[in-house]
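Run folding on both entries below.
>entry_1
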Amino acid sequence: MEEASTYRMPCKVLQGINDTLESLGRDINEYHLVSFTYTFSDFERYTREIMAEKSIPIPEEDLHAINYLNVQQRYTFDTIFNAAMMNTGGAFFVDGPGGTGKNFLYKVILAHIRSKGYIALIVASSGIASSGFLGGRTAHSGFKIPIDGGPGVKCQISFQSGEADLIRSSRIIIWDEALMADKTVILALDKLLQDLCENTKPFGGKLVVFGGDFR
């Protein structure tokens, strides 16, 4: 038992380091910290990704904030929430200048979908924007999009990875500040979701919400 515990401890340390690096779009094996290639089994990666999302706290204030949505926000909430509950998929665009309550709306949507036991993912085009949401991450990190981008760019997520299982398990994907991303990146996400979900519908039939100022 002592030997097993001694073995697990460095593995947990390596896992923690790798988690941090992966959130930045990197991998522990790039830095040669150990003499072997560090990998997770598919089950370990699946469990880690799913459990991390399931453990995101749901603030009571975000649930109660539904009572403070204005008419347009409430209509948008109802439309997107119903699509998530019915799992019908679709692409939606939330348009509005800064300061009009888009983030407020996103938080209400996330809280209510997560409160039903479903996985709701949110990414943003910048690290600053993504840090404003529980479970938020940059689009480049969440979808493993190469930083250099360019025509023909592809998301670096394999079909059998934990990230792929997480995306397939999600009921909604929200992308804040989507207009800051090049169109090739949006197309890369479309192709990724079609491949992962084995569905040729736009975005693989997933429910995707893009937000930004379209003016």
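>entry_2
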Amino acid sequence: MELYVGAGEEGTRQQIHLNDLAKTNSYEYQGLPVIDFYTGATGGLPVARAKYNPEHDAPLLLFTKNSEGSAMPYRVLSIEDSWQKQGVGTYQLVNLSSKALFWKVGEERFKIEPKDLRVIEVDGTNAKTPVIALEVNKDGKPSRVYRAKWHNLENMRRLIFVRDTNENEVGSVRVSVIEDFYVPPSTP
């Protein structure tokens, strides 16, 4: 999807390309911590507004569709993506779904509320980390919505995104895992 970033309807806009379920290129931005996204280089409709934390060294903006009748078609969540703050051996779990999820990652157990996130560190020396996610239905009974064993490498971190399924998908949530690998900068 092609969008345009600008400071209001009258300012100059920069074109950006958004990938579906994958990171895009990095873009330089200087300005207020509120970013407006439009459908056109001039004019066009506003489709999203992002408010990012200026303390983030490398904000990663996540676009999710809003429900019908919302002021803008997309909602934007800003998370930290800096290697200095979310380094090797971290799992950043982002719950974009409409339900609370109960996780067991390795031996750690925790709950992530809807539209919230949690960062955990794992022992990357173990070959695999078992992962289970549960939801609780209306009757209070837990049911498993995700199970996996993730392979670990010493130079890797993971971003995990959980979203609700649509009418064409089976189950209640979809889990997307992005594996990032740290490559130290080369010295001349």
